[in-house]
Every structure is written in C-alpha cells, then in structure tokens.
Amino acid sequence: AEEYSVKDEL
Amino acid sequence: MNIFRLAGDMTHLMSVIVLLLKIHTIKSCAGISLKTQELYALVFATRYLDIFTDFISLYNTIMKLIFLASSFSIVWYMRQHKIVRRSYDKDQDTFRHLFLILPCLLLALFINEKFTFKEVMWTFSLFLEAVAILPQLVLLQRTRNIDNLTGQYVFLLGAYRALYILNWIYRYFTEPHYVHWITWISGLVQTLLYADFFYYYFNSWKNNVKLQLPA
Description:
The complex is a heterodimer.
Chain A: H1 4-7
Chain B: H1 3-26, H2 34-47, H3 58-80, H4 98-110, H5 117-131, H6 134-143, H7 148-174, H8 181-206
Helix pairs in contact in B: 1-3, 1-7, 2-3, 2-5, 4-5, 5-8, 7-8
C-alpha cells in the first residue's frame, strides 16, 4: 500500500 | 485527502479552466506557448497511464480525465482551430521542447523508485512537469505584454504546486514512512521556477500596474 501513497495524487 | 491537496487540485483545475475559457471565448491564444501546452499533454499522458488499471477513487479518475481532456483540447485548439491558430505566434514560441524531454527521460531512467516502464514514465512526467512552464515563461519575457488571463493562468499553475508542497509536508508528518524525495524535489524545483514570475506578478498587482517582466 505504501507505493500508492504518492500515486494517489494527481 | 487533505485541504492543501484539495486546494492544489482545485487551483490546478482553475488554471486549465481559465485557459480554456480564454481560448474558447475570445477565440485567441495570443501569449500562450503551444510548446508548454504540448508538454503538459505529454505530462498527463505519461502520468496517468494507470487510469484504467488502478482505480484509486472516483475523484481521482474524474480529475485525471478532466486534465487529459483539457490539455489535449487546448493543444487541438491551438493547432487545428481555424480562428484560434491564427493568433498563435509560432516565430516567438521557438523553445525546442526536445531539450526538455530528453534530459527528463534520461534522468528518469537513472533516478526512479522502481525500474519498471510505468514507474519510469511516472517519474519522467514529474521531471517534465517541473520544467514544462519554461517555454511559456520565455514567451512571456519575449512578448513582454501579459494579458491578465495569461497572468492568472501562470499564477494558478504555480500556486497549485506550491499548495502540493504544503500537502507533502502535511502527509510527511501525518503518515508513517511517507517519504518521496523524487516527487518533493521536482515539485520544489517547479515552484522555484515560478518564483520570479510570482515576484513580478505580486508587484504589478500591489502597485496596480500592468504586469511587465524584465527583458
């Protein structure tokens, strides 16, 4: 889930 | 989602709306750099490769679609629309964007969080977004006249990334192991590139004079 932390930004 | 990031996304959205409105209503793109618009279309195309594979939230998907649609339609307007393209001064907008694309691509190949196609493309889009405004700033320096819509567009574009920096600071302190140097450094470089524009923008606004950039 860590990799999502920045990928969830536009 | 935190207030800084929401404000940043809304500011970013406003910047593309202002630009689309300007081009659509007065049917002119005078003072707008097509090079910068093409770079932004490339930034979104390489940033949002995962739009159909990884669903994060409805908001995320809708905003991605809006940014993709608006950036490509602005490029279309400036290249194809029979009236708008007449107001595009291509002999002033001469920044060769290959000089920006290649270094960003090379850098992304060496500095990335994971050496996969998607990750390299995503990192490339971050580096490219940091420098995408350069052709526009060069054009503003050359033409020296900045109509207030273009000034607002550049201001909002710079403000959105500044708000994102606040968002990264907030997330660093509130989320464990939220550390992303690549994102943070490219976002900081991007905001610093706007710094001198901000300086002249605020001065012109404060002294209520027309915005002039030094030659």
